[in-house]
């Protein structure tokens, strides 16, 4: 991150080191959009072919793959839209811009994986009980082509910035579909060799398991950000200890850490310093040390600190440890 901080300023007993400038990822975002667009074209072209073949062959596994590819295409389109929103500058009441759009997109990706997975699971169980005829040879050819197409799409998205939860959501969609095609190809080979048509439904259940696993991962990660949990890489007890090691700092309370979006952690805290620091004009130097500590040890550049004397907490409403 390339954030720049405003010069420390003294305003009563509050010192803030917050800036909304400098979180510009324009080059990376443009590259990500290009990679996402290429993957989208690959998937849409193959999905149209797959739907036709699935209907002709009677393969649920292929139809499940086609449904998953539709969610893949929707996920990638939503990711592109979210990237465009996130790139808009902060203005008016939108003090962080629309950076959370990427997290909403990731959450939607997780929900679509969950819903499609459950629908396919119901149909798969029914076909295990009442297995239909499946044209194994046709399914095998399409599955092999699907593996090639999804390998290409996975490689393209793998070059994008996957630290963005939005891009990671699209990548997980495509990666899951790649595994699904591999399972479908195995099922088709089993059907051709043994006539065991239930292999198609079993392959579909494998696809379901992969969908649910990816859905859980995306919903857990996006949920942590939307509910403003502390970033996983930020150890709050260790962070508090580091801040207390700074000279003249006697206490840290009302410590909050959260993520605005997947690559923008933020933190705020009330820091109690020795009373003499306010008279000596030493507070700006303490603020610099606090921010340097966060940048150097915890990779948190977006921070706000309220510096206060020891007695301030006695009449501070809503304070917590």
- What is the count of DSSP helices, taking H or I runs of 4+ residues? 9
Dominant shape:
elongated
- Helix coverage percent: 55-70%
Overall tally of structural domains: 2
What's the CATH class of the largest domain, please? Mainly Alpha
C-alpha-based Rg, rounded: 26 Å
**CATH homology superfamily of the largest domain:** Cation efflux protein transmembrane domain
Mean pLDDT: 80
- Major sheet: order of its strands? 1-2-3
CATH fold name of the largest domain? Alpha-lytic protease prodomain-like
Order of helices and strands: HHHHHHHEEHHE
Condensed summary:
With 321 residues, the protein is mainly alpha-helical.
Task: Describe it.
The chain is mainly α and 321 residues long. It has 2 domains: 26-226, Cation efflux protein transmembrane domain (Alpha-lytic protease prodomain-like); 236-315, Alpha-Beta Plaits (2-Layer Sandwich). The chain is built from 9 helices and 3 strands; from the N terminus they run H-H-H-H-H-H-H-E-E-H-H-E. A 3-stranded mixed beta sheet has the order 1-2-3. Strand 1 (249-261) and strand 2 form a beta hairpin. The longest helix is centred in the N-terminal third of the chain and has 32 residues, at 26-57. The relative contact order is 0.14.
């Amino acid at each position: 991150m390339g954030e720049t901080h405003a010069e420390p300023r003294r305003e009563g007993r509050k010192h803030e080191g917050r800036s909304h400038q400098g979180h510009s990822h324009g080059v990376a975002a443009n590259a990500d959009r290009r990679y996402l667009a290429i993957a989208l074209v690959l998937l849409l072209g193959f999905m149209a072919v797959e739907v036709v073949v699935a209907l002709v062959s009677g393969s649920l596994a292929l139809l499940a793959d086609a449904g998953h590819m539709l969610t893949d295409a929707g996920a990638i389109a939503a990711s592109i839209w979210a990237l465009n929103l996130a790139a808009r500058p902060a203005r008016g009441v939108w003090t962080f811009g629309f950076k959370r759009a990427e997290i909403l997109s990731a959450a939607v990706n997780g929900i679509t994986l969950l819903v499609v997975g459950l629908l396919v699971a119901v149909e798969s169980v029914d076909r295990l009980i009442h297995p239909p005829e499946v044209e194994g040879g046709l399914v095998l050819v399409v599955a092999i082509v699907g593996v090639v197409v999804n390998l290409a799409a996975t490689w393209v998205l793998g070059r994008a910035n996957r630290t963005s939860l939005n891009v990671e959501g699209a990548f997980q969609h495509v990666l899951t579909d790649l595994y699904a095609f591999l399972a479908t190809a195995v099922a088709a080979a089993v059907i051709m060799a043994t006539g065991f048509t239930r292999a198609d439904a079993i392959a579909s259940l494998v696809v379901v398991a992969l969908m649910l696993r990816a859905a859980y991962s995306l919903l857990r990660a996006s949920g942590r950000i939307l509910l403003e949990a502390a970033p996983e890489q930020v150890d709050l007890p260790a962070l508090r200890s580091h801040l207390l090691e700074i000279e003249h700092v006697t206490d840290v309370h009302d410590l909050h850490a959260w993520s605005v979006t997947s690559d923008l952690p933020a933190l705020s805290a009330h820091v109690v310093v020795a009373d003499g620091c306010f008279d000596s004009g030493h507070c700006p130097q303490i603020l610099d040390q606090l921010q340097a500590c966060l940048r150097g040890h915890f990779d948190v550049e977006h921070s706000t600190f309220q510096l206060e004397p020891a007695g301030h907490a006695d009449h501070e409403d809503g304070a917590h440890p």
